[in-house]
Amino acid sequence: MNRNWKEYQKEIADDHYYYARSCIRQNFFPGSEKAFLDIMRNDLNRDCFDDPLHTSCTGIGYHADIVPLDTIMAVVARQFALMGEAGYENFISSCITSFGIYTEILATWEEFPETEERARENLYKATGRTLVKPRNLAHTSDIVFHHREAIAARARHRLVNVLTGEPLRVVEHIGCHYAKIFPKSGVGGSEFPYVLAGMVESWGGQCVDYPERRHCCGFGFRNYLVQANRGYSVANTQKKLESMAPYKPDFIVANCPGCAMFLDKWQYTIAEMEGTTYGENGHGIPVLTYEEMAGLVLGYDPWALGMQMHQVDVEPLLDKMGIEYDPAAKYLGMNGKYIGQPASAIVNCGSQDTIYNIKQ
Amino acid sequence: MAKRVIIVGGGVAGIQTALTLSRRGVPALLLERESELGGKLTGWHKLFPSFTPAHEVLDELRHRLNESDVEVRTQCEVRHVERNGVTLASGERLAADAVVVTTGFTLFDARVKEEYGYGIYDNVYTTVDIERMLNEGRVAMRDGSAPRRIAFLHCVGSRDEKVCQHHCSKVCCITGVKQAMELKTMFPDADVFNFYMDIRMFGPGYEEMYRDAQQRLNIHFVRGRISEASPTLEGRVQIKAEDTLTGRPLKMSVDMLILIIGMRSNASNAVFAADAGLQCQPSGFLAPRDQFLHNTESGVGGIFYAGTVTAPKNIGESLSEAVVAADRVVEYLKRV
Amino acid sequence: MGKYFDMLMEDVRFREGLKSCMNCGICTGVCPAAEFYDYDPRQIVSIVQTRDEEQIERLLKSDTIWFCGECMSCRPRCPRGNTPGYVIQALRTLSQKLGFFVESEKGRQQLALKRTIGENILRTGYCIVPKLVAPALHPEQGPVWEWIYRNDREIYCQFNPTYGQEGPGAVRRIDEDTLQEMHRIFEVTGGRAFFDRIEECSDRKAREMGYDGADQRYFMDVFTRNSQNNDE
Question: Alpha carbon of B212 to those of A222, A359, B49, B218: distances in Å?
């Protein structure tokens, strides 16, 4: 296929990051946030500050239209103030929604200076803190992208099928708010974002372009958060899965934690509701965060990365990559404690005794 | 000694200006950057609305030029323009008593609109590619097969703030209709679509052609701008748009997506303007003194315009304007 | 000029989002909501652009403005530099300020969002915490999530020993001083008043609809009711 993901660069800081966590990533992929910090600190010797004082950016509330613009601006101003107080100037966000929020608010302050003035005043009035603006703003995937060759140099595994020697076929899903709001804020722009494709290529894999590549995962904020609207969410994910399945991807890697969660969980729902699965052998397509992908490449244990928290099993991918893992350790608690196992579902590779029925 | 006029650019407007000046006894020096005269018309297949072969027009102009005493220099790029002459890329300075700028336009580079995948996906073409293929006598998909569904997209690089092209390129509407008719005639079983926002049939016979395309050839016109194109597994192109007249989103796969590319102002316009104190329009095209009584004159005495250097125009308009420009030059030379 | 249009113009997102629309439909062509619902963002922009008071009021009271998923896919494509998604955000904010949101089924869902995400922000400092994603309300999350939900401490502590306690790390407890700062931000910036307004309007509407105010029954009904499904 004649495809060229463009690599027009944005400025990405090399070290000394103020790390802002993500509501969704820490909930569904806590191992990914841990892996990011471990990789940066231990493998790449970079300084990341994990500040206990920071909060949610309230972006999900904002995009659910219950948090007013002035409010989220002041919350964001507080995050930036904390960064300044901690002595940092490179702000990195672990969440695409947040990254979109930070980017948009900085642009709005630029375009409408009175809004920055109001945010500054509100912040001071509410907290006594002083707004400083970051010198560099990046999403954590930008940081991994920035260090991708250093990671490749330390790779224990590559995104290559060890049996065939062929590159793994990867669907990369970017997340709308990474570059659709401000195309120049993302590596590669909004049409051919290179942030994940660059990692995949550096680590030996091959990206798959498919008709619905740019389509939203279907989160749609209120369209998932309110139960009555979830048809929108699952229908959009299904559209993507239908479109990518003929390309037989070995796995999906997502930029945004929400997308990773939906592309994983909705495969379960669709399988239970309609009996349709999109992966090999009647199972699901594994969905990874880029931290998990980087972690596997660097030889981290999949369960230490938290991949047991996925609904779709990742074992077929681990086998393809030649990664050793302990199947029995997958669902253990702290210190190897047995805490029971999730019931098996159609998208899983274990027994087919589905005891959980979404229709009930 | 007779006064000399330099004409910068050997497209149809430049040739016609030089011919007219020469006929009126003014020595004319025609400078062309390429090795051949003819400008954008070179390589074009047929002209709307009469389907006249483009080479017929060019051949006739070249023939007249050969008969005339116009001095022609090709492979001669002009870097700087002043009221009393030009400087070539080679550094050579040529003096003149008046200069006519007929440098035309630049084709919009369709790769800039990344969402349509030109240069990335197979089977996405531009109108220029289609003219070339028509000239070669073979229009086909990348794999050589005949297309069964073809979509034209209007306004690529026109009326688009995202690529800093606010203006309408004027001739693309009718070009899209013309090429749709040519392809439909070539592939009678194919479905041919035109995705448009407004169909601007400004010239004589254009509206009739549009009607003929609909009525006789059953070419479909969908009012909506295509949002994006993506490749399919079979090498076709999936497009998304809204049919705004029914208010429904629409998704289809086509064998060929043809981008009707617009006219961009030349980068050299700004250089010329800076050199000689000329004015550019916000679109980047050079600004005539006014749109009515002085539409071939610049604000600077001795510098004149003809053709698409001031705005998108069709061939006929460019040719007529060249005659007007030559007339104004003659008047000017009498005064100085 | 009309008062609704003037009020919309006070919102910077509206000023940024609507310049002038030529109805090309490029936004609708790429809109996930337009494919799923009977919905057309182009028409919303077109209506607002008329500045017609009556039509804008009808929009503010309708389901139409609540279908958008705010994915912003429309933004990079518009040839006139509009952002229909921003126009929607401004309309939604105004609809809530004026109390019009309770006049539509989709609009009434704002109460559910306020009581889940909104209150969670003030309670925990996060939009979402594991305990908010109760399997009973989220059957789509599947059996692995149910297992995580049941064993949260055993699982989260593997990644952050301070799970649920103060300190750095994933899903930590946010300290009381920080939460107080969040509360003051909501007070000072009108976030709190906005929440109260949602409650107050919902309560009025609930009573009008025969509920005993915006109680748990009303909440569950707005959270789960989808009359489009029931009609099928």
Answer: 49, 56, 11, 8
Neighbours, chain C (3 or more CB pairs < 8 A):
A, B
Q: What are the DSSP calls for B195-264, one per residue? A: EES-----STTHHHHHHHHHHTT--EEEES---EEEE-TTS-EEEEEEETTTTEEEEEEESEEEEEE-EE
Q: Could you say which of A27, A123, A215 has the minimum Cβ distance to residue C129?
A: A27
In whole angstroms, give the CA distance from residue A315 to residue A327.
9
- Structural domain spans, chain C: 3-98, 107-224
Nearest CA in chain A to B121: A2
CB A57 within 8 A of CB A101: yes
Among A186, A187, A172, A26, which residue's Cα sits nearest to residue A100? A186
Which residue in C24, C45, C47 has the most chain B C-beta atoms within 10 A of its own C-beta, making it the best mutation to test that interface?
Answer: C24
Tokens read off for B203:
């010239």
| One CATH from 1.10.3720.10, 3.90.650.10, 1.10.540.10, 1.10.1060.10 for C3-98 | 1.10.1060.10
Given CB atoms, is B112 within the 8 Å cutoff of chain C? no
Model pLDDT for residues B160-175, shown as the tens digit of each residue: 999 999 999 999 999 9
Residue A324 exposed, middle or buried by CB count within 10 Å (0-12, 13-18, 19+)? exposed
Task: Give chain A positions within 8 Å (CB) of C128.
Answer: 23-24, 27, 60
CA C145 – CA A101 distance, rounded (Å): 28
Query: What is Dmax (Cα atoms) for chain B?
Result: 70
- pLDDT tens digit string along B176-220? 999 999 999 999 999 999 999 999 999 999 999 999 999 999 999
3-state secondary structure of A92: strand
* Domain B110-262 -> CATH class: alpha beta
Residue B230, phi then psi, degrees to nearest 5: -140, 155
pLDDT digits (tens, 9 = 90+) for C206-221: 999 999 999 999 999 9
Question: In the structure encoding, which two tokens stand for residue B284, read together?
Answer: 């980047």
Tokens in use for B52?
A: 């006249």
Q: What is the average per-residue pLDDT within B16-25? A: 97
List pLDDT tens digits, range A262-304.
Answer: 999 999 999 999 999 999 989 999 999 999 999 999 999 999 9
CB within 8 A of B55, min separation 6: which ones?
none
Q: How confident is the model at residue C134 (pLDDT cuts 50, 70, 90)?
A: very high
State whether residue A136 is helix, strand or coil: strand
Which positions ≥6 away from C95 have C-beta within 8 Å?
C60, C61, C65, C101, C107
> H or E element: which one contains A106?
helix A96-111
Write down the mean pLDDT value for chain B: 97
Given phi > 0 = left and psi -120 to 50 = alpha, else beta, which region is A85? alpha
Domain with CATH 3.50.50.60 in chain B: 5-105+265-335, 110-262
**CATH H-level, domain B5-105+265-335: superfamily:** FAD/NAD(P)-binding domain (3.50.50.60)
Distance CA B31, CA A206 (A): 51
Among candidate residues B266, B219, B226, the one with its CA nearest the CA of residue B250? B226
CA closest to C29 among chain B residues: B241
pTM for this entry:
0.95
Q: Under an 8 A CB cutoff, do A210 and B230 touch?
A: yes
Which residues of chain A lie closer than 8 angstroms to B230, CB-CB?
209-214
B155–C76: do the CB atoms touch at under 8 Å? no
Query: With an 8 Å Cβ cutoff, are A269 and C127 in contact?
Result: no
A122 touches chain C (CB under 8 A): yes
